[in-house]
Amino acid sequence: MNREQKAAEVESLKNRFSKAQIAILVNNKGLNVSDVTDLRRKLREKSSSFKVVKNRLVKIALKGTPFEILTDYFKDTTAVATSEIDLVGPAKVLTDFVKNNEKLELKIGILDGKVINIKDIQALANMPSKEELIAKMLGSLNAPATNLVNVLIQIPRQLVQVLAAVKDQKEKNA
User: How far apart are CA 87 and CA 171, in angstroms?
Assistant: First the structure.
């Protein structure tokens, strides 16, 4: 890799970290190409990305960013999963992948400028996704309106039932 390529890589990494809301560092030593490809595909489905990084270049790229506190964790073979949109997606994918593939090891993460450890990443992975939370919220917002409609429908229904009973009573008496 020549000097221009290194400068371009540093700029690319700086751009990636400046846009990311979450970053999770993993040790991917021993993963084969098909495993990494499968992991990248799963992360892409969750609006996330995965990149194996050169430690020296990423340390340069992190200077002046909120992710600079992760510099000490870039040792050995390191890859980074980042996301600009979905905060839970990368954590879910990586923890599921770790269960099936022991060669991938979670190191540490950062979420909105705060360092999160492996337990925090696993807790984040157990949270419902953004879509699930929106569906639950909409269901909660819809429930009072549905209940009000049901109550309002009951009033005329009961009136009709009373009138039908009075009509039946008068027909019996007549």
Answer: 69
How large a percentage of the chain has pLDDT more than 90?
Answer: 11
| 116-141 per-position pLDDT tens digit | 998 998 888 888 877 788 888 888 88
**41 to each of 15, 77, 94, 139, 160, how far by Cα in Å?**
21, 20, 12, 32, 60
Interatomic CA distance for residues 104 and 29, integer angstroms: 7
Over residues 39-70, the pLDDT tens digits come to 999 999 988 999 988 889 988 888 888 888 88
CATH numeric code, 3-127? 3.30.70.1730
| Cα diameter, the chain | 106
The full 3-state SS of 56-69, as one line of letters, equals HHHHHHHCCCHHHH
